[in-house]
## 1
Amino acid sequence: MLFDLHCDTILKIYKDNSQLNKNDYHISTEKLVKANSLVQFFAMFVNMEQVDDAFVTCNEMIDVFEREIAKSDIIRKGTAPTDIADDHITAILTIEEGGVLKGELANLVHFYKRGVRSIVLTWNYQNEIGYPNYKYIHKDKGLKPFGIEVVKKMNQLGMLVDVSHLSDGGFYDCIKHSTKPIIASHSNARSVHDHPRNLTDEMILLLRDNGGVMGINFYSQFLDGSNFSKVSLIVKHIKYIRDLAGIDVIALGSDYDGIGCELEISDISKIHILKEALQKEGFSQVEIDKIFYQNALRVYQQVVTD
Ligand SMILES: [Zn+2]
């Protein structure tokens, strides 16, 4: 089974007016079935510099998500951990860009009511919550006062705080202020490839101690800086993180349909290639199950209530 913490497929469907059931993207319902998917996070990614009103755009994207999910019974929208079951694929709404809240906690409650259960606090721009780690310009800047309020409110509502893209300083503030495990939905190890989107050893250990997980990102720029996403590189990051911090901090966050590089695992239906590569490297079935779905499920069950 598979629990993938990040994809941008809905943006493609929103822009192209295409379908989730069947398409040429990295993720479709058809491909998720082949992948034996249990849970797929669908990010509503809003580029703040390309839209007039980020709140409105985000709601339009959720409308598209709802429309597409309604077309099939194999994939169903889920919110509560009890919605997750192995007789169907559970699609979970997430947001990538906390700027859609426009600095209002009421908008956080609005999106919670629409079913959103996780938010990537920033993308590559500064917003009301905090600063991105983009090019390390704001590396050491922490959360803004509204960001600390957001973390507390997300804890209270039962939503996952997602620190991928966030400044290193913001990461430390989330660890400090969150009373529940947090996630880095699509980030790798900075010691394996030095990139601002990846986490340092210190951050990985803090995330482990916090009870959270990091979703391994398949984008080659975060694997080794090349344009070819090789399975061996994904395994290299996983091995490094396991040896550093143990198996329980590792999950998957493919970033499918948000990445433009050449991919050895060309779409999610081919995810068995990763499983086979891990087996070859001596990973046990217990370890593979933890990486593929159990660790992410554990955190989801701990943080989300309904
Ligand atoms: Zn992203």
## 2
Amino acid sequence: MSDSSQPLIVGGGIAGLVAALSFAPRPIRLLVRGRLGHEGSSLWAQGGIAAAVGSDDDPALHADDTLRTGGGLADPLIVQRITQAGPWAIEYLATLGTPFDRNTQGELELGLEGGHSRHRIVHAGGDATGRIIMETLIRRVRDTPSVEIIEGFEARALEQDEAGIVGVTAESTGGVSFFPSSQVILATGGVGGLFPATTNPGGSRGQGLLMALLAGAPLIDLEFIQFHPTALDTGTQTLPLISEAVRGDGAILVDENGIRFLADAPQAELEPRDQVARAVWLQLQKDHRVFLDARKHPGADFPVRFPSIHAVCLARGLDPRKDLLPVCPAVHYHMGGIEVDQAGRTAISGLWAVGEVAATGLHGANRLASNSLLEAVVSGHEVAQSLKEAPVRPRANRASPSQPVPSFESRSVGAILGRSLGVVREGKELKSALDALETEIRHGGQPMALLGWVWVWAALQRSESRGAHFRKDHPGQDPGLAHRQRVSIEDWQAHHPDGEKGVPLRS
Ligand SMILES: Cc1cc2nc3c(=O)[nH]c(=O)nc-3n(C[C@H](O)[C@H](O)[C@H](O)COP(=O)(O)OP(=O)(O)OC[C@H]3O[C@@H](n4cnc5c(N)ncnc54)[C@H](O)[C@@H]3O)c2cc1C
């Protein structure tokens, strides 16, 4: 039975699981929407986890690559701390039992991805890294008696009193429940599921961001969304990812006439991810089709090098050794999130955030490939240390959930976000998106529209192009905007003299 003095983690991806294990042997509860290990981006991570473990590598080089990719907005101290901890993170996961891919001498096999100056991508099962790490962590968590796993509950709202967090309202098939706790860690993952085309699981819909926003926590870097340039274009909302490593192995991008449109770029198909995404987007805008051609390279090696991607293609009637693979850009990773300090603490007393839902400052305006799993492991551990040191508040008075619970319904908001927060943005479109969201907020009854509003507001304020945020009407960088941008529910309130009137925070 739940004990209100125990901390509560919401979310069972890599970030939540590492936090739970690192808190042991102290008791902690882990609340997940579905069954543990059945949902979340962590299971789908392909490329691997970045760490400076090669003999020619150094965490300082990894830090340099991370800072360069981050478009001037990555926090140097956080970058240094997390890249420095890279070798530890690999050792930690290996000690827990993760079978990383190794050569015949037992050394880690290290892959190369765009933006990295050294081979430093550690992987397991070829392109099944996320699933294999998750299986290892889940086994460990299930064997750890101090972790109470609560499955089948979707957190819907953070409850607080004047001193801070007092618990979480959650919904299951059995109805609404209240989980009292004065220490809550949000580890709810990303946002792709809100958008019309994404590599993320459909359930990654920014729920953690919305709960934090409604509770009054500042969000930061929201405008920076990474699009992956090579999602397999299956015409569905969730698109299978074809890892950058396939291009690293020599696959090229061509249009329907066989023209290699990135041939003249200095690094061709391995230009930074945002630039490749824009090049693909531009071809599609011109009514071309775009294909990944892996027939020559990796060619016959494809099934061995990329067994999971190969199986996904075959299931859709495409053999990468013989067929061109139709691709398009898709929302892949959110650099933005709940603002946290280096211990994962948010602005709300008793609330921590970790993993993709949080913005530590590691990524700045753009994420270096395979840095997110690293961040989830290192920050998961640090959040647990911070929790251990935090004073536990006496039992909270509130003992029942607030009613009614906020809805996470997001269909119309997702369409608006898809139109305005694409690979290439424009002020005119962002303004009309704000109007549409305003209508949704006042008449549509979707709290998700409020998240959409502050998100689009952030993109509108950033009247420049930096990292993953590209404005057609402001294609250059503005040195005056070389800072991170914080937004909160107060931005909405400041623009609406009638305050929250008309905002259905609970529906
Ligand atoms: C296809 C794909 C490939 C990727 N490849 C790589 C890679 O190679 N390397 C890399 O570094 N990164 C990669 N990434 C990114 C990386 O996988 C994610 O950033 C990372 O796994 C996020 O981990 P997380 O623990 O924060 O969230 P997730 O793994 O998404 O877990 C979120 C958890 O929260 C739960 N949850 C959500 N909302 C609620 C709620 N309201 N109530 C209760 N539970 C809730 C979910 O059920 C889930 O258990 C990839 C992402 C995708 C989509």
